[in-house]
Automatic annotation (TrEMBL):
<dbReference type="InterPro" id="IPR017850">
    <property type="entry name" value="Alkaline_phosphatase_core_sf"/>
</dbReference>
<dbReference type="GO" id="GO:0042578">
    <property type="term" value="F:phosphoric ester hydrolase activity"/>
</dbReference>
<dbReference type="GO" id="GO:0009395">
    <property type="term" value="P:phospholipid catabolic process"/>
</dbReference>
<dbReference type="Pfam" id="PF04185">
    <property type="entry name" value="Phosphoesterase"/>
</dbReference>
<protein>
    <submittedName>
        <fullName>Non-specific phospholipase C1</fullName>
    </submittedName>
</protein>
<dbReference type="InterPro" id="IPR007312">
    <property type="entry name" value="Phosphoesterase"/>
</dbReference>
<comment type="similarity">
    <text>Belongs to the bacterial phospholipase C family.</text>
</comment>
<keyword id="KW-0378">Hydrolase</keyword>
Length: 393
């Protein structure tokens, strides 16, 4: 596990060295501190591969990156073709929903752009609390972060240089909404990060006994086989069925080398929902699952806090800067937005995203998602009308 300091020094000097060897104290992240005390923390949850954001995010719902070993735009533009846990859930007649704030990153999965899923997307601001209050949350819900840091709506995704206190407020709101829902006693919330962000860790990454998901090899020059995991990432499991103060270590199986990683999410969903489809890949068939932590108790807890600590201090000494250029991750989200809009030829993508400011990108993303969903719902309505017309003949 050498190299953290050396690489940080090469990239950003001593200031970055100090940053990657540092951590937040509990008072700076009071919501996480409270959830860790009240529920369960994984101390061996790894990123699915030692790569960047998008490949690891793809593993969360599909147990593979389909050969994507870095954030390569030409693969992200058309969407990745693999089957997802959303498809498995839908095929068994269960429900899922995506609650988004700017733009849903799950639309990097090509299958989620299909017309039949268009009504699975909901505005977090307008729908999540209402669905929770009325007890109509779906079987499987994904809550997406706000990725663009604007004055009216600060980013809450914890990406640098966003204010981590906004992420704390976001998690607090989600928890308290679920806690007040009539569905609380049948709920579980898992919080994790796609990759470690360069921060130091002393635990070696598993490099043996990790199966390639589907045999797809990454591109030159590394030809990565996706046969090892990445660095550990935080993971918290919240549920009234989870014992207070639980620390979850290495899983019991299904193989001697199994670990908790992002593929553990679809693997656990398959067990919890008794899904009839096969595993998505060899990776979720191998990954550890955490359903047993919902069965230790005979009844749900009644002592779960209704409110979490207030987030009283900002962790950044300046306001959002809407005029700055985009991060690499934000540029990838703009590539996705342009496809949802359907008006920008691929040759113009690089020029477009490179000249955008954060404020412009935020507005563009909002408009692109609105156009995509409106067009999809209009087409779906026409199809239904056509079917009704044909059935009446």
């Amino acid at each position: 596990m050498n190299g953290f300091v050396q690489q940080a020094n090469e990239i950003g000097g001593l200031g970055m060295v100090k940053a990657i060897m540092s951590a937040f104290d509990p008072s700076s992240v009071p919501v996480y501190a409270a959830l860790a005390d009240e529920f369960a923390v994984f101390d061996r949850w790894f990123a699915s591969c030692p790569t960047s954001t998008q490949p690891n995010r793809l593993f969360v719902h599909s147990a593979t990156a389909h050969g994507l070993s870095s954030n390569i735009r030409r693969y992200l533009v058309p969407g990745l073709p693999q089957k997802t846990i959303f498809d498995s859930i839908h095929d068994d007649g269960l429900s899922f929903g995506i609650y988004y704030q700017n733009i849903p990153a799950v639309l990097f999965y090509r299958s989620l752009r299909r017309l039949k899923y268009v009504n699975k997307f909901h505005s977090y601001k307008h729908a999540f609390k209402e669905h929770a209050r009325s007890g109509t949350l779906p079987n499987y819900a994904v809550i997406e972060q706000h990725f663009f840091d604007t004055k009216g709506s600060p980013a809450n995704d914890d990406h640098p240089s966003h204010d981590v206190s906004e992420g704390q407020k976001f998690i607090k709101e989600i928890y308290e909404t679920l806690r007040a829902s009539p569905q609380w006693n049948e709920s579980a919330l898992i919080i994790t990060y796609d990759e470690h962000g360069g921060f130091y860790d002393h635990v070696p990454t598993p490099v043996e006994g990790v199966p390639s998901p589907d045999g797809i090899v990454g591109p030159a020059p590394f030809y990565f086989k996706f046969d090892r995991l990445g660095v550990r990432v935080p993971a918290i499991l919240v549920s009234p069925w989870v014992q207070k103060g639980t620390v979850i270590h290495k899983p019991d199986g299904p193989t001697p080398t199994s670990e908790f990683e992002h593929s553990s999410i679809p693997a656990t969903m398959k067990k919890l929902f008794n899904l009839t489809s096969d595993h998505l890949t060899k990776r979720d068939a191998w990954a550890g699952t955490f359903e047993k932590y919902f069965t230790i108790r005979n009844t749900p807890r009644t002592d779960c806090p209704e409110k979490l600590p207030e987030v009283k201090k900002t962790l950044r000494p300046f306001e959002p800067k809407e005029e700055v250029t985009l991060s690499e991750f934000q540029k990838e989200m703009m590539v996705l937005a342009s496809q949802l809009y359907g008006v920008h030829p691929r040759r113009h993508l690089v020029e477009m995203v490179d000249r955008m400011s954060v404020g412009e990108a935020s507005r563009y993303a909002n408009e692109a998602v609105e156009v995509f969903l409106k067009n999809g719902r209009r087409k779906l309505q026409r199809l239904r009308q056509l079917r009704e017309s044909n059935s009446n003949k």
